[in-house]
Structures are given as structure tokens and as C-alpha cells.
Write a structure and sequence with these properties.
By secondary structure, the chain is mainly alpha-helical. It is built from nine helices and two strands. The chain has a single domain, classed as Four Helix Bundle (Hemerythrin (Met), subunit A). A two-stranded antiparallel ribbon has the order 1-2. One of its GO terms (molecular function) is zinc ion binding.
Amino acid sequence: MENLHYPIGKFIPLDKISSDQRKEWIAQLADTPNQLRFAIKDLTSAQLDTPYRPDGWSVRQVVHHLPDSHMNAYVRFKLALTEDQPTIKTYEEDRWSQLVDYQGTPIEVSLTLLASLHQRFDTLLSEMQDAEFARSYKNPESGVLTLETALGLYAWHGRHHIAHITSLRNRMGW
């Protein structure tokens, strides 16, 4: 069951992060919209409504979750770049996934939103300097996070959810 929850493993923050590592994460994050679009290519509506694991979200919910999560990430980065260690607002992801827009919005809307968001995010990240990556925000649940660690987290997050979909496709033979 652990592999169904974490098909690429849990996020493990690195003690030392090089500029090359940051560039790799920026590239992974920038490619998330393309990877997601590829992962759901040719899925039927019934397949989109299939949970990726027992008691897990459906593929459709995952597709809508990624732009929600990464919008929050983008705002957190901008807050940390413009304020001194702001305390960010958390949100109830599971409750968001139950709202009507997750069922009633065509997935293309979320795919387009994610692509547009990541264009902006990539522009911001690609121009950030070392000192800016050292800035941080405070998550009331998990503590202080530097932007370079947050970058790694969100690069992992995209790959994590895409692996939920691709693992399901493999298991189901889709």
C-alpha cells in the first residue's frame, strides 16, 4: 500500500542544495504540465473517475488538485520574496477535492491553468538568485521552509501525483 501512496517515495529534503540541483528541479517543475497532459492522454471519463488507490482521489481530482496546490506554492514563493519570513495559510486539500468544481469543471480548464501558472512560476524561478532561494516562509503545520527546499518539494509533488496516474494506468493496463 505504501507504493500506492508514494509511488516515487516520500519527499526527503536535502541538507545541501547546489545550483545544479535547483536547475534540475526548476526544469522538472516547468515540465509538470506536459507530463500531466501525457499521463492522462486518451483516458475516458470513467477512467478519470477511477481512484488511483483504495480510498484515494480519482484521476480527475488529482488533475484539479495540481493547479490548486501549485497556485498556493506560487503565492507562497511571492510572499517569501516580498516579506520577511511570512506565515503562510494552509488549506484543507481533501475538502477542496470534494468541492463542486472538481467534478463540474472540464479537466482541460485545469490543464490550461496549470500550464499558464507554470509559465509564470518558471519565469520567477529561473531569475531568482542564491540569496532569494535562501529566503523562507513559515508553515504553521511543518515549520520554516526555505524557498530552495520548497522548490524541491513542489518538483517532487508534481512527479508524485503524475506517478499516481501512471502507476494506475500500468496496473489497469490502460
